[in-house]
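Submission checklist for the structure archive. All mandatory fields must be present; incomplete records are returned to the submitter.

[x] Identifier: TetR family transcriptional regulator
[x] Organism: Gordonia oryzae
[x] Residue count: 206
[x] Sequence attached
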Amino acid sequence: MAFSAERSVAATSVEVDRGGRPASTSAHELAAAAQRLFLRDGFDETSVEDIAAAVGVSRRTFFRYFPTKADVVWVESDKELDEFRRLLAASISETDPIEILVEAFISVVDHGRHEDEWACGRAQLILEVPAVQARASEVYRQWRAVIAEFVGDRSDMPATAIYPTAVAHAMMAASAAGHEQWIANPGRGLRASLAPMFALMVPRRV
């Protein structure tokens, strides 16, 4: 797991087997179908075959996109992090770095209200499913590294210094807390759930 940038979800097409007829699907379509099944039937109870059948593709097609079924939850993660880096690099140096981080973070994880069902389901799985959380530790480490490097650069100190490290960990904790609030109150919207948590939890230098 605010955002003015509404991006269309990647839809790289591939030829798949569906009763001998060519068809196309996307990684996001598979991920969305998988999440619906995970939330309805349970993560452990849902097989790769169940996911593939729900979209009308083969098991082989599923594994073209994802090494494991837990990886479907992170379908947008690499693109989100790349966009986060781009927004930070393009930011104005005179602006408060925390304001830049918060706005950039929200902008890349909020895919717009039309994607709320998918994004809220993703957040629920990340927060609740151990197999998904195992992957989360590596994803969060990558985000923390980007945040700490940016804060260190804007504060003229090493990324490993106390303040950049504190900001990086606080931002990821605030994101988790904000997503919990959103799941409990989905009508509030993701930005409205995240922004107060960032304001309360992310330290600012005095």
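[x] Structure attached
Curator remark: Residues 1-24 have pLDDT under 50 and may be disordered. The chain has nine helices and two strands.
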